[in-house]
Amino acid sequence: MSGEILLETREVSKRFGNFVALKSASIAVTAGKVIGFVGSNGAGKSTLIKVITGAHAPSSGSVHVRGKEVHKADPALMRALGVACIYQHSSLVATLSVIENVFLGREMRGRLGLVSHKAQRVQLQEIMDDFGIHVDPDVLVSTLTPVKQKEVEILKALVANADVILMDEPTAWLSLSEVSNLHTTIRKLTAANKGVVYISHVLDEVFQICDDITILRDGTMAWTGPEADIDRPKLVNLMVGEALGEASRAAVTSERRPRGTGTVKLATDKLSKQGVFHDVTFEVNAGEILCFAGLIGSRRSEVVKCLFGDDKPTSGTIISKGGVKTFGSPAEAIANGICLVPEDRHTEGLCLSHTTFENTVIPSLVEVTNRGVLMRKDMDAMCTRQITSLNILPPDPAKVVGQMSGGNQQKVLLGKWIEKDPEVLILDEPTVGVDVGAKAEIYAIIRKLRDEGAAVIVVSSDLEEVMTIADRILVFSNGEITTEFDAGEVTNDLLIHAIGGGESA
Amino acid sequence: MISKIAARVPNGGLIAFFVVMTLFFCFFARNFATATNVENILVGYSFIAIVALGQMFPIMARGIDLSIGSILALAGMVVFDAILIFELPGWIAIILAIAAATLAGTLNGLFIVILSLQPFVATLATLAGYRGLVYAISGRQLYPELATTPLRDPSLAWFNEYYDVGAWFGLDAFITTPWIPASFLVLLVVMVFLYVLLAKTPYGTALKATGGNKEAARLAGLRVRMIEVSAYAMSGFLAGIAAVLLVARLTTSTEALGIGMELTAIAAAVIGGTRLLGGQGNVLGPVLGAFFLGVVLIGLTLMGISQFVQQMLTGAILLAAVGYDAIRRGAGQ
Amino acid sequence: MTEDTKSDESRRHFLKSMALGSAVMGASAVAPGLPLTKTSGAAKADGHAKQKMAFIQWQPHTVPNAWSKGIEEVLNAQEIFDYQLLDGQNKVEVQVSLMDTLINDGASVIFLQPIDSVALAPSIASAKRRGISVITLNIDATEEHAAHVEMNHYFGAKEIARVMGEKMGGTGEVAIMNAPPGIIIRDQRTNGFVEGMAEYHPGISIVADVNAEWSRQKAQDALNTVLASNPNVTGVYGVNDSMALGAVDVAKQKGILDQMTIFGNDGERDALESIEAGELTGTQYTDVYQQGRFAASAATVMATGGISARDFQSQGTLLMPYIIATAENVGGIQEAQRW
């Protein structure tokens, strides 16, 4: 029944020693509705999710499913009661097929206790038809696009008879059109009287999809109510506090400097890679932020890899420091003052099991070496400098990076390149999975680098981000530059139209 | 103050366990707390500690070197052939042996990097390959009478000397101090060298980064392929040094030398807190791990515990070490 | 010519060992009753500790297990010895380390099955300096020590060749399933066989000598390969019983068992049963329990008779008696003698 309360927490608090992670949180997930949780990292969202999924026992308060109190915190029990969670990072097994993943751990048994593939297939097909989700059951998950993988996770939840589906940052790796596909799927879930919890840093999405919104800040519920009762500035203020809210708005309206100082730092001429991208011609100047906008899959990252010497173009040239260059390796690009902050900080950017200190010094080993011996003092200074200037939290050089929040990880990643004092800094999706507060800080850092004379290239699929920081925008589609805008003269709609070729407008 | 020092010592738990175990044997194992026994442990496990230190390098680069036992035999046979067949002076034989071992290690690295083989598979192949080479070059096969001829070269024999270090400091006036074997002195030199290499040069950080996240290290401009090869070269190099110590102690080399050594070395490294997931490691850990294995084996032997129980206990200690590490890291999350 | 000197030397050794052997036999028979054992020795003087003896084996295997049992029988009967079986883990360095440990612990006698003759020599030398007797089993060491008790590898293999040749009627082709090189007993068992064939049955040719790594499975593969290239092979000699039994498996599977003459070496229980079943033709049988008892008896004499290791100016060697077990005589080997 629509309107039935499927799951609620009543006055739930969670303490870890003296630290209060969550204070008196009461939320209700209603059948047929989407409730959004918003808040900065550390606001208590993860703790709340963990209480709901049974990973943490609340220190006080209670959790109720369909009105009945659940006395034990047990993930398996909560799953059995119909609560499923889809995490930001895929929990699918990439080497198994879709159907194997969907039924993993809950295989349907036939005679002799053997897996009945036929029955599984029939049930999966029924569910796919009911919800209008269509995935080939036999392909390997690793071959699917990110949005299809999310759909597989949703299917997995549905097969497990989940009524309450939590989605933690579901769109972190999705492009604009994929986000809208996902939202369509969520609408189908609510139409079937499922309750959905939607957790996202992207406020546009929250306003688009959610019926109710709960704002968490410092472990307390700052506000909760219907989406229609709150507007964006109020939400940001409630979420990050007045001061940061101001800063984040100021960032949007700051001065634009297309073409910066006019000194070309890096340029390409008809750069092409057979079958990937072709005739990419552009230049980036000192003191400007050039954004590569486009859909995911428009081959921007591939172009950037060639600029950084991580891949080789098949034709065309790269001009750096006044000459034509071919970079055989990242090391050569770095020697020419070009640095890349890669897209996926987990697999390409950071050594997660290492500390802030170690991660920071890795690209700059040469600078801190004197006659073959590392200068501990210089390294300490370098690390402290970045922690202070980037406001990395916790400010502990010995903190293991894997245990830090996404925003702070990203700052560590930025810091290690800033130490190289790059002439050209390329950032690939710099704020994926980063909360609003940290985003504003990262934008401020990028601007500061620009003001100090660096040429900055930002690859971003986040429209808000492009509109916020770009001085100039190049729109990519299918490996080609289709349009160029000066940031001051472009509107949201114009840009969406250019990116999507009309489809998402 | 004390907690600050403790925080800087990465192997605190292991050191405590080591001390407890040693004290236990001092009280309960007859003749354990004697100067001679200390000498026995030092001389019997110094070379294993060196092999374990070598094994640490590939593990830090998120790999493994299964071929070190065969490399050790190869280096041993080079010493044997050089002295007995070619009648070269011992110091030349030693240099040749260490060079051969380093080359064998480098080849491992090249196979892994150039052919993109998994380290486990590549070194499993060379484990067999190098062992075959040992048989092929064995002076014992070519000249059977050499099989019963001991190596008596003076520069080789130096590695089997003992020094009364206690007397240098006048300690022997108070207690019977163990004489320190040359092989332990070699181990100390190796430890200092590796400490400087890992903690004080860019190479150490680069190696840890390569093991921690190879992709990130490469994109940070590090030459990860070279670094990977170097890790295997180091493993070979140290196996070569260990081979010299062992051959000096045995006064011969055999074709079967070092069989199963890779497992002992991996065990020592793991007990010493080297994570098999790569990216971490320090000089003290594998050395403590190796001597720990020695203390346990000798202590239990002196207590008269049966050999099968000894093996079970060694396995249990290995599990405990790995489990302790996992629990400690779990608590840190 | 070398032939002559070798057999001369062997004969001399053999005589010496006979002497030692009879001394041992006498001692072991009498020793338990001697008042000497109850009153003398460091054991009593210490007041608490028994004398310690230990056997450092190569690695766990039927042969050292049987030795250990034989040793225990003799030592346990006397109640003044602590005996311990130690595992060399097939590693020279482990054996050396165990030697050092036992020396430090003041063992009175160490039984040793050395992995290598030279590598253990320094350890044996340092044991001697501390007055500890070392008795080696099967594999001798280059350092002179108290005693060496050995299966008669060379002469036994020679005898195998003689009997095998007779069974084959003096003609035919033979393949050897061999162990990996580098071990003395492998060479003795091979050389004895090869030289025996040349001496007694010049009409028989040895056409293949392949490495089957002591293993039954490896021997199966190896013999299949040999038969493919040498279809006329009718005789197989396994340097140990496992490899000979591997050859039996192949012959049975190919249905040619009745045309084959297959000999092993060692005389372990499985081999004797196979002979009784009419499959394996024969093997060299040594009573290894007895070998252990001989070693232990010698040790008892040394530990209780006031004889120090340093008193041994030259080493005694005891070669074990053996029989070539075939269908005709295998029934004579008692259950208690099988291992």
UniProtKB/TrEMBL annotation, chain A:
Identification of the protein by name: Sugar ABC transporter ATP-binding protein
Residue span(s) of domain ABC transporter: 7-243, 258-503
Annotated GO MF terms: ATP binding; ATP hydrolysis activity
Domain of life where this protein originates: Bacteria
Keyword annotations of the record: ATP-binding, Nucleotide-binding, Repeat, Sugar transport, Transport
The keyword NAD is annotated on this UniProt entry: no
InterPro entries: AAA+_ATPase, ABC_carbohydrate_import_ATPase, ABC_transporter-like_ATP-bd, ABC_transporter-like_CS, P-loop_NTPase
Upper lineage: Bacteria, Pseudomonadati, Pseudomonadota, Alphaproteobacteria, Rhodobacterales
Keyword Transferase: no
A Pfam family recorded for this sequence: ABC_tran
From TrEMBL, chain C:
Predominant place of localization: other
GO cellular component, as recorded: cell envelope
SUPFAM superfamilies: Periplasmic binding protein-like I (SSF53822)
Intracellular or extracellular location(s): Cell envelope
Pfam family, any one: Peripla_BP_4
Gene3D superfamilies per record: 3.40.50.2300
Domain (Periplasmic binding protein) ranges: 65-305
Highest taxon in the source lineage: Bacteria
GO molecular function: carbohydrate binding
Transcription recorded as keyword: no
InterPro entries in the record: Peripla_BP_I (IPR028082), SBP_2_dom (IPR025997), TAT_signal (IPR006311)
Key words, A-Z: Signal
Family according to the record: Belongs to the bacterial solute-binding protein 2 family.
Protein name per the record: Substrate-binding domain-containing protein
Species for this entry: Aliiroseovarius halocynthiae
Lineage per the UniProt record: Bacteria, Pseudomonadati, Pseudomonadota, Alphaproteobacteria, Rhodobacterales
